[in-house]
Design goal:
Length: 414
């Protein structure tokens, strides 16, 4: 298919032809990671995901307050992720065919409108509608941001770069859930949605300042082939298995804490975020050096240990230990799989590849939260977390078998 220059070029330091990015210089110097564009993108992520996490952790409680039960708490997360799943493949194609900026800005603006609209929800049905709209905006904006990150990160530092990129998405977890739960402690969600809206608006302003790097444009018409990137299928399947375990954790951790009599559940996210902050950049560097698949396999094993620990927790100590193991696992798997996807694909197909891995992420979240909500009534939340550990073990086995059978080349060394 023809490849045409992107009309949305900017005369900036980041406007470097992509085939040249990521190469080690003749003098042996490593390509810089922290360019102006990457720093701005990290700032966009921190602000956007702070507002997002405020809502994500507390909206299941809102569903219960509006008259729903545990199943409704899973459905509000499921409707959000289902919407993101629907929009991501088309977004990936549009990113490759037309550009990054418009989709990033429109998706973030839609998220802003949806967050503020949550205050108008008078029942679970209307809340599901607003969650669906939020999911559409989220799917567009995060797919665009992830694709832009793949444009900006040097190829020889993909693991490290994606580690820092995903770290910026996770840093708000250190404080946002605790802040959100504190704000809604009395049952009033108004201040929560206003704060989330302000943070999302600030991320929109910062996103408008992002320089767009030069890149190849696919020029492809929308078709099944242009929507699906084959090289991303296996890493995406592994991402799905990982986030199947993450869905019920996010959806029900607050309710689980109440059931077990564990106060200060927000500290789980603080420990989880701190561990992610350490694991993601470090594991990314190791994955660049030793391979993305072995790194992801080790992370899956740690995630399984974390879910078993969570299922057995009867106090705050057990909860925090679970956060430690699960944070190490998730923080190792996610950047490794994202780097693996980008490493395999041509620059003109990065949008489709990013959409595939993010779609798998969303599908796993939706599957885990919705099925987990219905299973909880039959086997308890503790049983749901044990089943989640089994899913992570399946992912570990698949990765180990894949490495042994395929003997794929190691990642480009930094």
């Amino acid at each position: 298919m023809p490849v045409t220059p992107d009309p949305d070029l900017r005369d900036t330091a980041e406007s470097v032809p992509l085939p040249e990015r990521g190469r080690v210089s003749r003098a042996g110097a490593v390509e810089p990671l922290w360019t102006k564009g990457f720093v701005l993108l990290a700032g966009v992520n921190v602000l956007f995901f702070f507002g997002f996490q405020l809502v994500l952790v507390t909206v299941p409680l809102l569903a219960v307050n509006l008259g729903g039960g545990t199943a409704s708490a899973g459905l509000v997360l499921g409707s959000f992720t289902f919407a993101a799943v629907l929009v991501r493949p088309v977004t990936g194609w549009a990113l490759d065919a037309y550009g990054r900026r418009a989709l990033l800005l429109f998706g973030t603006a839609l998220c802003l409108a949806a967050v503020l609209a949550h205050e108008l929800a008078a029942g679970v049905v209307l809340l599901l509608v607003f969650r669906f709209l939020h999911g559409v905006g989220f799917g567009m904006s995060t797919t665009a941001a992830g694709t832009l990150a793949s444009d900006l990160v040097p190829r020889s530092r993909l693991g490290e770069g994606m580690g820092f990129f995903t770290l910026a998405m996770t840093l708000p977890l250190a404080v946002a859930p605790a802040v959100g739960l504190a704000l809604v402690g009395g049952g009033d969600f108004t201040v929560l949605f206003i704060l989330a809206g302000v943070l999302t608006a600030l991320s929109l302003v910062l996103a408008s300042l992002l320089p767009m790097p030069r890149r190849e444009r696919s020029g492809a018409t929308m078709s099944f082939a242009s929507l699906v990137e084959r090289t991303s299928l296996f890493p995406s399947a592994m991402m799905f298995l990982l986030t199947v375990t993450y869905g019920p954790l996010i959806a029900f951790i607050a309710i689980y804490g109440l059931e077990r009599g564990i106060s200060n559940v927000g500290s789980f996210f603080a420990v989880y975020a701190i561990v992610l902050g350490i694991a993601r950049p470090l594991s990314g560097r190791l994955a660049d050096r030793f391979g993305y698949e072995p790194s992801a396999a080790a992370g899956m094993a740690l995630a399984a240990v974390g879910m078993v620990t969570l299922a057995a927790a009867h106090g705050l100590g057990g909860l925090l230990l679970a956060a430690l193991f699960y944070g190490l696992g998730f923080g190792t798997v996610q950047p490794s799989l994202q780097a693996l996807v980008i490493h395999r694909v041509s620059p003109a197909r990065r949008g489709a590849a990013t959409a595939a891995i993010f779609t798998a992420y969303d599908m796993g979240m939706a599957t885990g939260s919705i099925i987990g909500g219905f299973l909880a009534a039959a086997v308890s939340l503790s049983g749901v977390y044990l089943l989640s550990a089994g899913v992570a073990i399946v992912g570990f086995v698949c990765l180990v078998v894949f490495v042994r059978r395929n003997r794929v080349p190691r990642a480009v060394r930094a």
